[in-house]
Design a protein that fits this description.
The chain is 72% helix and 7% strand. The protein is of the alpha+beta class and 242 residues long.
């Protein structure tokens, strides 16, 4: 899906309308002064990645609603394996996050099935988020900025933000993931199993989407004008190629 980003200048909506791709774009009004930037990913690869990322969780959710937590756990393990293998077959390399998720799902899921105790699969969510949080903290200690590497690699461009701001973004993500792990255990032990499954699938997803919105708002607000123009020029070149 193409995304059109419009800025607001002098109280009016500023943007450039371009020819529509196969699927309609999404207009997001921002209260920051931005030139129009169009992100046009590869549709087939983007769809496949989205499908692989959410397939295990959605399969777990649907199976739980139809059967029970134990059948859903087995499906989650199988889904994580398919996710990991599928990414390798498409990209010819393993994605580290998929591998970590599969290993944790395999260990905690197997314990759940062996002992017939759903506490293990509940802890699995917290363990994964704590691993991600710890990874970001380790990167910071090693003078590397995980979110900078991730987002600049995704956009294939230097965003020009100061390292001080990147550190704040990284700390925000690390603390959020740390807190998600604790909130997950609170929901798991204080509420019903059905409520926990809904939180695991939809609650954590909403929190991450909100963090992404905040992250991109900060990036586009503080991005230097020179880097902004380079992004626009790069986008213009991609549009002409298509």
């Amino acid at each position: 899906m193409a995304m059109k980003v419009y800025g607001v200048r002098n109280g009016g909506l500023h943007g450039v309308q371009r020819s529509w791709p196969k699927s309609r774009g999404v207009m997001i009004p921002c209260k920051v002064s931005l030139p129009p930037i169009v992100i046009q990913p590869n549709y087939s690869q983007g769809f496949m990645k989205l499908l692989l990322d959410f397939f295990p969780v959605l399969a777990f959710f649907i199976t739980f609603k139809i059967f029970d937590i134990y059948v859903a756990t087995a499906v989650l393990i199988a889904g994580s394996f398919i996710q990991t293998l599928g990414h390798y077959l498409i990209k010819k390399q393993f994605e580290k996050l998929h591998v970590v998720t599969f290993v944790v799902a395999l260990v905690m899921g197997s314990l759940t099935l062996f002992f017939r105790d759903d506490a293990f699969i509940k802890w699995k969510v917290s363990v994964i988020y704590w691993i991600l949080s710890g990874t970001i903290f380790v990167f910071l200690l090693r003078k590397r900025i995980a979110m900078k590497d991730l987002l600049e690699g995704l956009m294939k461009h230097d965003l020009g933000l100061q390292d001080r701001l990147w550190h704040k973004i990284n700390m925000g993500w690390a603390i959020t993931m740390l807190l998600i792990g604790f909130v997950n255990l609170w929901v798991a032990y204080e509420f019903s199993l059905d409520t926990w499954v809904n939180f695991k699938v939809w609650g954590t997803m909403i929190i991450q989407l909100l963090m992404m919105v905040i992250t991109f708002y900060v990036i586009f607000k503080y991005m230097p004008e020179e880097n902004r123009k380079q992004l626009e020029q790069a986008d213009s070149g991609n549009t002409e190629d298509q």
